Structure formats: C-alpha cells, structure tokens
Amino acid sequence: MILTLKPPATKKDVDAICKKIKELGFAPHLSKGKDVTVIGVIGQNAILRRDVFEAMDSVAFITPISKPYKIVSREFKKENTVIKIGDIKIGGHNIVVAAGPCSVETKELLFEIAKKVKISGASMIRGGAFKPRTSPYAFQGLGERGLKYLAEVSRVMEMPVITEAMNVNQVSLVARYADIVQIGARNMQNFDLLKEAGRTKKPVLLKRGLSATIEEFLMAAEYVMSQGNYNVILCERGIRTFETSTRFTLDLSAVPVIKKLSHLPVFVDPSHGLGVREYIPAMSKAAIACGADGLIIEVHPHPEKALSDGPQSLLPEQFDKMMNELKAVARAVGREI
C-alpha cells in the first residue's frame, strides 16, 4: 500500500512512519515528488495493517496497490522517473541515444566508433566486455580489459558507458568501470543477479527476456528496486514469436503499455530486436514515435569483420543519416535528441 503524507512532510514525520513500517516487519520505500511525499509499505499482506497508519496524523490517505509489482508501478509514483547521469537526463524531454559496437574488440576501434557516433549525436557509448553467446565457441568478450577500454573512452570522449554484467560476481566489477550496469535478456529472471544489481548505486538497464510477458518484465524490475536502487531503465529488445524474417519480433506496443503501468524510463534496442541492418532506421523512428525515452544502436565501421553481430551493426554513415531523420520524428512528438 501507499501512504500519502500531509504536506509539508517533515523529516520527523517520515522517520516516524518508516520506523513503524520496519517494526511491523515490512519495508519502507520513500518517493518524494515536487509537492507530495509518499511512502510505499512493501511486504506480504501489508494492507491488513492499514489501521495502524490511518491512526497517524501525518498520513493524509492510504492507497492499496493492486499490481503484483509495487515500487515499479505508476500507482507508487505518478510522475515519470528521470535518471541523471552527469548532464544527461534519461526519461526527461530529450531522447537519449547510446551507440557503439556489440563487443569491445580493440581500444583503437572503440575510440574510432565513439568519435563518429558522438559527432552524429549519440550521448552514450555501448559495448560488451562480457558477451553471452549462443555458441560456447563464439567470441566471449575481453572481460576486465574491455571494461578498462570503455572507461578510458568514456573519460576522454565524455560519454557515459552502458555495458553488461552476466553474473553476480561481475556486478561490482562492471559498476567500477561503467555508468550503467546492463542486465541482458537471458538474465532477466536471474533473481540473484537482479538483487545484486539492486544493491549497487549505479543505474541499471534491464532488458526484457526473450519470452517474457510485460508483467514478468516489471516484476524483474521490482527485484532490482526492492534492494533500494530506484534508477532502473527498462529496455524492449524483441521477443520470440513464430516469425522468422527477423531475429526476434520487436514489440513496440510494449512501450506505451509500460508507460501506462510504470513510471520508469523505457529504451528500445532495435539492433537485437531485428538482427537485420536495413530495418533498424525504420524501427528506431517508430520507437521514438511510440514514446521511447532512448535507443541502443550497434555501430561498426567494418561489420563484415566484427567479432559479434556484424549483420545488425549500422555503418557510421548509416547511423549519421538515421540520427538526422530521428531528430525530425522527435520534434514531431514534442521531444528532442
């Protein structure tokens, strides 16, 4: 349930309520808006103790949360969450584009790509240091050496970095070098990994699982946020259907649905969602039109030589052309890139 406090809510009021919540065996989750302070009471059958909080003078009213996910829900927080990374605001007026190679291959190549995508308008760099591959014989990534390359490029180019952690032991390592810790689609329901990511102070980008419903996706985000990390970005990256003309089916209808159900920012990854280079610009434009807050795009100057996902990587000149087209779409829906 959600406790909405009478304005102005003082620190003393908040502390007293949080203390009572903990005494009852539940977890308090505080959300401060511009004018309203709310506290989520999270725990099994918490609503049965609403009478305790109705008796507290600082509580204006109580709202039950009908969804199985609590902190993620729009009921818990009415206004959109905006995540700040330096000067970049994710979930605000501007649409954020992260671009880079699928895998970090060499430092020189990473610098080359970062320079080109930044000129074209990308504000973040993406690249995998640890790569979950279908085949055990495929390139698995450079590991910590790749993370160091990403950190150096980030520092020199002044571009925040998104990269993936594949298991619990990698989370603290990735968080040491990256600005956003990515949880990949195949790990969406790795609950120990989600909880470990929730214990970090770094924002988490959570990708939708290959066969996950939207409710399951939001419940996975709840795992992260239940550990105290509210800086979560949801990412639609395609789901598995009967269709074979693309690698997956990019479910853009998920974007407005999630926006209705949750306050969290939503990204779209058309590169992995399609797996076919020529379709990426069209679906990137569609993603912005349907309300996405950001895009993750794979770019490589020599995709035929890429160590992973070459067929879905845009050439730098294709990315540049696409970015110019995206700006027009963003303006048409009242936003900017």
Sheet-strand content, in percent, reads 15-25%
Into which percent range does the helicity of residues fall?
Answer: 25-40%
Q: What's the story with the biggest beta sheet?
A: 8 strands, parallel, barrel
Q: How many strand segments?
A: 14
Q: List the helices and strands in order.
A: EHEEHEEEEHEHEHEHEHEHEHHEH
CATH architecture type of the largest domain: Alpha-Beta Barrel
What is the average of the pLDDT values?
94
Class from helix and strand fractions: alpha/beta
- End-to-end gap: 37 Å
Instruction: Describe the global form.
Output: elongated
Strand order of the largest sheet: 7-8-9-10-11-12-13-14
Helix tally equals: 11
| Unreliable parts | none
How big is the Rg? 21 Å
Any idea how many domains? 2
Question: What's the level 1 CATH class of the largest domain?
Answer: Alpha Beta
User: Which fold name is given in CATH as the topology of the largest domain?
Assistant: TIM Barrel
Let me know the CATH homologous superfamily of the largest domain.
Aldolase class I
Describe this structure in words.
The protein is an alpha/beta fold. The protein has two domains: 2-63, Alpha-Beta Plaits, CATH 3.30.70; 83-332, Aldolase class I (TIM Barrel), CATH 3.20.20. Helices cover 34% and strands 18% of the residues. It is built from eleven helices and 14 strands. The strands form three sheets. An eight-stranded parallel β-barrel has the order 7-8-9-10-11-12-13-14, surrounded by seven helices. The protein has a four-stranded antiparallel β-sheet with strand order 2-3-1-4. Helix 6 (191-198) packs across helix 7. It is elongated and about 65 Å long.
